[in-house]
Amino acid sequence: MILLSFDTEEFDVPREHGVDFSLEQGMQVSREGTLRILDVMKQNQARATFFCTGNFAEQAPDVMQRIMKDGHEVACHGVDHWQPKATDFAESKQIVERVTGLTVNGYRQPRMFPVSDEEIRRAGYRYNSSLNPAFIPGRYMHLTSPRTPFMKDGVLQIPASVTPWVRFPLFWLSLHNLPEGLYHWMVRRTLKHDGHFVTYFHPWEFYDLKEHPEYKMPFIISNHSGRQMMERLDRLVKMLRQGGHHFITFTEYTNLFIHRQ
Q1: Is the dihedral of CA 10, 13, 15, 16 positive or negative?
Q2: What pLDDT is attached to residue 137?
Q3: According to the model, what pLDDT value does residue 260 have?
Q4: Out of 33, 90, 104, 127, which could bridge 203 as a Cys pair, Cβ 3.0 to 4.6 Å?
């Protein structure tokens, strides 16, 4: 089973590098990137879960409608990606549900920062995907955290996939920078070991960042961005489909997990 997801947020990475970057500029980048993602997914008849910030949902209701029309799941990703607050998980749910008219089941904290599982349950979420169980100094220090889904405080925790032995992260940066053959091999090995694969990307990765040196993007982010990243996503999805794997939403996986308990 493949749980593919996209953190659908306003692009704010230039602000991390001292660039004055407005919400409007960030939305322009992320709108275009999201539409490119949707095109790739539609061509491959594959579904995913889109974790959307309140900002994105309110600023791009037409894109939200296309996400749903194409058969994808919408989940929550805070309100303002640049300035997360302790109350975001509840406010994010209110905004996204108002924009979509649907009940939202899942949450992912911006930058995968820690979030209270008890508060997540109280807000009415059924699953939380805010854990990258990797060891990345200065970012994720989760060597002792479970690396596969588990229940906690009545909420299913769905960590991002890492390799079984050395916990190498198989997230967006890996597909950007590793040789594709190596990345695909590690994904297949992890699938064989775990029976599922969870990963995530961002819309702005699919924007042509290398054409904008004023954004001051580090090489590991701009590398293979834009059209090249569309091609890499397309080949990843095709490889997984050829392997007989099915793409399901996070809510569908949650239902299966709970049913098996």
Answers
A1: positive
A2: 59
A3: 81
A4: 33
Task: Read off the tokens for 145.
Answer: 């955290």
Task: Please answer whether residues 118 and 104 qualify as being in contact, where contact means their C-beta atoms are separated by less than 8 angstroms.
Answer: no
Contacts 24+ apart (CB under 8 A), 210-218: 214/19, 215/13, 215/14, 215/17, 215/19, 215/21, 216/14, 216/17, 216/18, 216/19, 217/13, 217/14, 217/17, 218/17
* Look-up of token digits 């940066």: 173
Roughly what angle, to the nearest 10 degrees, separates helices 23-43 and 61-69?
Answer: 20
Cα–Cα distance for residue pair 64/37, rounded to 1 Å: 13
Q: What angle do helix axes 227-242 and 180-194 make, rounded to 10 degrees?
A: 40
Measure CA of the first residue to CA of the last residue in the chain; give whole Å: 18
User: What pLDDT shows up at residue 135?
Assistant: 67
State the pLDDT at residue 251.
97
DSSP secondary-structure letter at 52?
E
Gap between the Cα atoms of 155 and 76, Å rounded: 15
The structure tokens 């220090």 sit at 141
Separation of alpha carbons 261 and 257, rounded Å: 7
- The burial class, CB within 10 Å (0-12 / 13-18 / 19+), for 180 is middle
Q: pLDDT below 50 — which residues of the chain?
A: none
pLDDT at 252: 97
Token duo for residue 231: 């091609």
